[in-house]
Specification:
Layout lengths: L10 E15 L2 E18 L2 E12 L16 H12 L1 H19 L21
Antiparallel strand pairs: 1-2, 2-3
Amino acid sequence: MPTENENSEIIYTWNCNTVDVYPTHEGLQNVIHNVHYNVIGGINYSTQPIIGSSGGTQLLNTDSVQNFIPFDQLTSEQTIAWTKAAMGEEMVLAIETNIANQIESLKNPISITKVVPDPPHEAPIMNL
């Protein structure tokens, strides 16, 4: 990840490489119908990387497959584009906003967990 200052923009990386396919569908082979996506967003904050993530699945409409690309010719960019198109801009924005909120909570937590220290215990003296 590039070096960034505290006010830098979040860089989002989409992974849509894991897919479910119909082995055959309308005479075509390996037709993707469901994409398992993972989105990671990150920044460098005060020299520390801070990341948030979101994942899930997105169904693709296979009712009328047009411009079919054989499975062995697919690229990550294509599956990402299909996934985002199936989600719509609002859902993509909601996912990336959720990640941004995760990062903000890590940068500026509203609550943190601490452990109250026990006072030192002296070992009992044993008289034999």
